[in-house]
Amino acid sequence: MRVVVTGAAGFIGQRLTAALIGQGRLAGPQHSSMAITELVLADQVAFDPPPAGAIRVRCVTGDLRDADFRQTLFAGGADSLFHLAASLTTEAERDIALGIETNVLSLLGLLALCRAQPVAPRLVFASSIATFGGALPAVVDDSTAQTPQTSYGAHKVIAEQLISDHSRHGVVDGRCLRLPIVVIRPPAAPSVSDRVAAILREPLNGRDVDCPFRPETRLPLVSVQAVVRSLLTLHDLPGNSLGPFRAFNLPALSVSVAAMVDSLQAYSHRKLGKVRWKPDAAMQAIVDGWPAQFDSARARQLGILPDASLTEIIDAYLKDAA
Questions:
Q1: Tell me: the pLDDT tens digits for 56-66?
Q2: pLDDT for 121-143, tens place per residue?
Q3: What whole-number distance in Å separates Cα of residue 298 and Cα of residue 49?
């Protein structure tokens, strides 16, 4: 079984790759468990292949906007594709053309390559809470209309619809998972999600941090461990169990920024950095347009579940970082 992962050098991509190597198997076209024989790991930055035992690993570096680069990913075919690569909110807002080329046109190119496969590959797409925006209900669930307020969110909506339509045509067996804010991620390129993660990450590592959000701001949080579990669960579900709607919210914890800061006191045995309150109107406006509570009865019924508590998320981060 040949599996392609885009965005493989990223925070989620690295951990998904490790999980794929660890379990060594995925559900195949006929829903039977198949051994992974090759992993093709793609990113725009160079990275070293992880140890993979009997699984052949090929790391390829390039830009998904390049048709020739996309073609190299499918040399030898593809049974499954985990598409994580994206131009994030800040970058997509700054350069609308770059965002469209990376988030929409590149996906169309990948779908064209899927169309050429003899058997429709499973495509698992990392979508986002940014597909929702504007005047939102207290709980964003399966019935909430998508009204994105950023270019990145609009691109994700377009991608979900493209994957759903290609699944209807039998080109791919697609499934999309809308991710909440993933914490606690390591320092990364400037993004709103990174500023959220920094509220916990920096003090836990003994560094002071400026918090740009109001204390009462509620945010939907999930650990990277829960994201990886959910991506793999969604991949292995039979297509006929998904129904006509191929996109799912990943259920999340709803936590206020003040509660995030307060949670750090349980780790006072560490040398904690300080959280300084420095409101940023632009940052606040972006998170105000995101869901405060994110859930999906459909996802829960399929075994896609949130973390148990914020403490569990922090403990998992500290164990991973040790």
A1: 999 999 999 99
A2: 999 999 999 999 988 999 999 99
A3: 36
Class of domain 2-179+224-251+294-306: alpha beta
Average pLDDT of the residues of the chain? 94
SS3 of residue 10 by DSSP: coil
pTM over 0.90: yes
Q: Where are the beta strands (DSSP E) in the chain?
A: 2-6, 25-27, 33-35, 38-43, 56-61, 80-83, 122-128, 173-179, 181-182, 209-211, 218-222, 247-249, 253-256, 275-277
- Catalytic residue status for 152: yes
Q: Does residue 193 register a pLDDT over 90?
A: no
Contact 146, 97 (CB under 8 A): no
Q: What is the DSSP string of 121-181?
A: PEEEEEEEGGG--SS--SSB-TTPPP--SSHHHHHHHHHHHHHHHHHHTTS-EEEEEEE-E
The catalytic residue among 11, 125, 152, 290 is 152
